[in-house]
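Design job #97: recover the sequence.
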């Protein structure tokens, strides 16, 4: 290590200390420690790198970019600085810049699996899917046991319609440390015919994925003797009508005897090896009590009744990319031929009152106790216009018209292009042309909705064409 002019040996930034603070969930303290290191050693690229790491953990990617850039100016030969810069650019949605930074890191360390992974993720987010596949494959050549990379590659393969390969990689999610699996003693089902077996099905991801994969339960039932399904409370009333379920058990209750088990998201690989084999959505019966309740709340006044949702679960880590804001929807309410009804649940539902929009948006959230109520509301509405979340799967399963407003990189289910999806025939897709560009989406939605509202004979039909 080179000595500075005063003859004292320069010490590296206390990266271990910063990492320890971050591991303890103390990003503010980590950032303070990193800032102190930079003040003490302003010519040390490692100190700037540590500051960038702390700032990014603190949710300050703009400042992190500046810190990494300062470090690169001092030591352009350090690959970690370039790679970390790429990750910060990705946080900001600057995917092309992220790709360039990761390629700079790879020029310095061409056989580093983690850097290939970072490049692959940036390429995927930039919707450069074929290039992303190549980078994921290179990463797996260098580190073949990385389940996270295999899972990410699987979702890209599914996005491209390469289902047989994609489902194999998709199973890698079951090996991830943060995967919420049920603690079950019996073996996993392999999809084979087992006429004497009881199959236990359990939910693993969000409500939308549960509704999506409910279409495979009847097919699974034909291969086994009996199906027991564990169900989240919010779906219990709705799933009581799903064909193929012999016994429905609330999540958290005692699990009855079973022979084999499977997470719901593992069912597609047994039944759809290719997109052309996609099964129709599950058929659900709407509760008569809920229908009566919604009839009073959503009157037929002769104008178009439109449901809206602008955010999925705020606890989902990808929600920021897929969610819009209520103010994007409010200009639609200026049309006197339609009325907006909010199906939004959770914290974002408070936006109606916060924006003083109660006169033009009827808030149904207080009346939606579970998905059976929401199903009744969707069945009563002429159309649902929303960003992607569980209600889109519900509306699609009910065969109701739903316009799904998608981020630039959508969920794999919707593929890389097009205005329709074979998974839900009644769904029309509106895609962002560029990352974060909701303005262009609503510029297409507004006239399409105005046309529909002006033609009563088209109301209630599934409008899926562009």
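Job complete. Output follows.
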């Amino acid at each position: 290590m080179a000595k500075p002019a005063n003859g004292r040996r320069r010490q590296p930034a206390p990266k271990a200390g910063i990492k320890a603070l971050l591991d303890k969930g103390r990003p503010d303290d980590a950032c303070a420690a990193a800032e102190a290191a930079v003040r003490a050693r302003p010519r040390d690229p490692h100190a700037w790198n540590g500051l960038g790491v702390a700032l990014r953990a603190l949710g300050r990617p703009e400042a992190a970019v500046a810190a990494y850039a300062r470090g690169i100016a001092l030591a352009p030969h350090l690959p970690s600085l370039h790679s970390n810069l790429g990750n910060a650019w990705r946080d900001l949605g600057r995917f092309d810049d992220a790709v360039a930074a990761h390629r700079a890191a790879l020029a310095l360390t061409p056989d580093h699996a983690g850097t290939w992974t970072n490049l692959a993720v940036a390429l995927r987010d930039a919707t450069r899917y074929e290039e992303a596949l190549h980078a994921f494959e290179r990463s797996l050549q260098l580190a073949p046991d990385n389940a996270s990379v295999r899972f990410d590659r699987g979702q890209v393969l599914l996005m491209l319609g390469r289902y047989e390969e994609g489902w194999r990689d998709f199973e890698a999610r079951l090996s991830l440390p943060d995967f919420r699996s049920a603690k079950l003693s019996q073996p996993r089902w392999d999809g084979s015919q087992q006429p004497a077996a009881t199959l236990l099905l359990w939910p693993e991801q969000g409500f939308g994925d549960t509704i999506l994969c409910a279409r495979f339960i009847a097919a699974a039932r034909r291969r086994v003797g009996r199906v027991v399904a564990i169900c989240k409370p919010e779906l219990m009333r709705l799933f009581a009508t799903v064909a193929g379920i012999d016994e429905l058990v609330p999540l958290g209750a005692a699990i009855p005897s079973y022979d084999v088990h499977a997470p719901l998201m593992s069912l597609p690989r047994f039944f759809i090896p290719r997109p052309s084999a996609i099964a129709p959505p599950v058929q659900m019966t709407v509760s008569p009590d809920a229908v009566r309740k919604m009839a009073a709340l959503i009157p037929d006044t002769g104008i178009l009744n439109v449901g809206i949702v602008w955010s999925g679960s705020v606890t989902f880590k990808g929600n920021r990319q897929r969610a819009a804001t209520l103010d994007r929807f409010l200009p639609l309410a200026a049309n006197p031929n339609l009325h907006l009804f909010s199906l939004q649940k959770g914290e974002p539902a408070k936006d109606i009152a916060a924006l003083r929009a109660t006169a033009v948006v009827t808030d149904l959230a207080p009346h939606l106790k579970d998905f059976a109520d929401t199903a009744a509301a969707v069945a009563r509405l002429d159309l649902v216009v929303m960003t992607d979340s569980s209600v889109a799967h519900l509306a699609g399963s009910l065969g109701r018209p739903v316009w799904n407003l998608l981020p630039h990189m959508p969920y794999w289910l919707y593929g890389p292009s097009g205005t329709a999806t074979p998974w839900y025939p009644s769904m029309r897709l509106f895609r962002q042309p560029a990352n974060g560009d909701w303005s262009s989406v609503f510029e297409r939605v507004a006239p399409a909705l105005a046309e529909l509202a002006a033609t009563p004979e088209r109301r209630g039909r599934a409008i899926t064409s562009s």
